[in-house]
Amino acid sequence: MKRKLDKSHLVVYLLLSLGAVVMIFPFLWSLLTSFKSLSESLKVPPAVFPETWNPVNYKDVWNTLPFTSFFVNTVLMILLRIVFSTILSALAAYAFARMEFPFKNLLFILVLMPMMVPSQIFILPQYLIVSNLGWQNTIKALVVPGIASTFGIFLLRQFFMGIPKELEEAAVLDGCNPGQTFLKVMLPLTKSGIVSLAIFTALFAYKDLLWPLVVNTSVEKMPLSSGLAMLQGQYTTNYPQLMAGSVIAIIPMIILFLLFQKQFVEGIATTGTKG
Predict the structure, then answer these.
(1) In terms of pLDDT, which residue wins out, 45 or 2?
(2) Which pairs from 79-85 meet CB under 8 Å and 24+ separation?
(3) CATH of segment(s) 65-270
(4) Are the C-beta atoms of residues 219 and 227 closer than 8 Å to each other?
(5) How many whole angstroms separate alpha carbon 227 and alpha carbon 235?
(6) What pLDDT shows up at residue 275?
(7) Is 218 a residue whose pLDDT tops 80?
(8) CA atoms within 13 Å, Cβ hemisphere of 198
């Protein structure tokens, strides 16, 4: 029995290791390519390791693009999206999880419906709204379409439904109104869920490419994802510089995950505990 168990563990470890290699390979390739020369990156068959480890591509790409503006725009977009998305999602999730009102289940299905269609469908109506408001080339154009999160409502609803009703009833007996019950009792108990939502919102905002390219045409108003697209030329592309810019853009998200990985994993594990 122990031998069979060890063999089964070995198979699981091998599969997980294979999956890890597949997932990390694109990042490693980007890192290696960022130290190559342009001629090395175009070799056939491709060279895995650079002949000389030269960091000149990082210097060139930093001087070519306004990375300071990219980082400022990205940080502002992420912070504002996190704040407004978390507030709106928490309020809506609490209502769907704990309150009783007519057509609650039907309304919740309607809220979830945007998750069932490609997000590209909403680009045209969103652009028309932003254009009519005169928000092109502004931070508002990057933030406002991302503050309503269907995923955030679903995620936090699962957390609220997992909290025992006795705690809510005890708060009511102590004289708390619905607002106080939400702020002082229920919301603190969903801390890990809120952190998970904040991380997801940051990831979704960080990798948002198409919408910033559509709504912001000024390079100074672009976030990192769309700003890096400027490195891709119509006829040729300097892949080492592009990979160097990609590595620079990836580092903040890696740091964010390492700092909050416990809350991130806990949030993912808890979302499916109760439906």
Answers:
(1) 45
(2) 80/139, 80/143, 80/147, 81/143, 81/146, 81/147, 81/201, 81/202, 81/205, 82/198, 82/201, 82/202, 82/205, 84/143, 84/147, 85/146, 85/147, 85/148, 85/149, 85/152, 85/197, 85/201
(3) 1.10.3720.10
(4) yes
(5) 18
(6) 42
(7) yes
(8) 16
Size (the chain), residues: 275
Q: pTM for the whole thing?
A: 0.79
Model confidence at 62: pLDDT above 80: yes
Instruction: Spell out the SS3 assignment of the chain.
Output: CHHHHHHHHHHHHHHHHHHHHHHHHHHHHHHHHCCCCHHHHCCCCCCCCCCCCCCHHHHHHHHHCCHHHHHHHHHHHHHHHHHHHHHHHHHHHHHHHHCCCCCHHHHHHHHHHHHHCCHHHHHHHHHHHHHHHCCCCCHHHHHHHHCCCHHHHHHHHHHHHCCCHHHHHHHHHCCCCHHHHHHHHHHHHCHHHHHHHHHHHHHHHHCCCHHHHHHCCCHHHCCHHHHHHHHECCCCECHHHHHHHHHHHHHHHHHHHHHHHHHHHHHHHHCCCCC
- pLDDT > 70: what percent of the chain? 92
Q: Report the pLDDT averaged over residues 201-230.
A: 85
Domain boundaries, the chain: 65-270
Tokens of 12: 């699981």
79 has a pLDDT exceeding 80: yes
* pLDDT tens digits for range 250-267: 888 788 778 877 766 766
pLDDT tens-digit series, residues 117-160: 888 888 888 899 998 988 888 888 889 888 888 888 988 888 88
